[in-house]
Write a structure and sequence with these properties.
By secondary structure, the protein is mainly alpha-helical. The chain has 7 helices and 3 strands, in the order ααβββααααα.
Amino acid sequence: MAGRRRRAIGTWRKRGIRIGRAAEATGRRLGSIRPLKWEAIAWPASTIHWRAEADKKRRESVILMPLPLAHELRVFQRRLGAMSVWIFATEQETGRPMDRHLFDKSLTRAEKAAGMKKLVGGLWHPYRRAWATARKHLPITDVAAAGGWKDTETLLTCY
């Protein structure tokens, strides 16, 4: 029983860290990350195809993926062995994405395991805010497009 619990905790930590890194590296909302499919990744071009049906504003886009995230996702895909449809599939059933509440739980556990304090402003949104803030030196229209904002007004007003 103790070994099973230890493996489960390790799985949660690894999964939470990957999810947190995806949020941190892309600036995307959880609603866009959760239903991300392996077919959305173009490895040679290092891009992610963000589907309109998974976007809050219903906009489709293809954005360059940061190389560290591309590497981590590639390693994750190889470790999985079998190719599931979803990048973040449920453990029991690979035919659907992980439940939002499990995403929340895995990120919370990963942050706790890393010794992080709870971030101000929500669970997922602080990662989006940090992503936008780190790109203030870049052209605003490019940051808006990469982060999934429809226009620059919200980005300028809220970030």
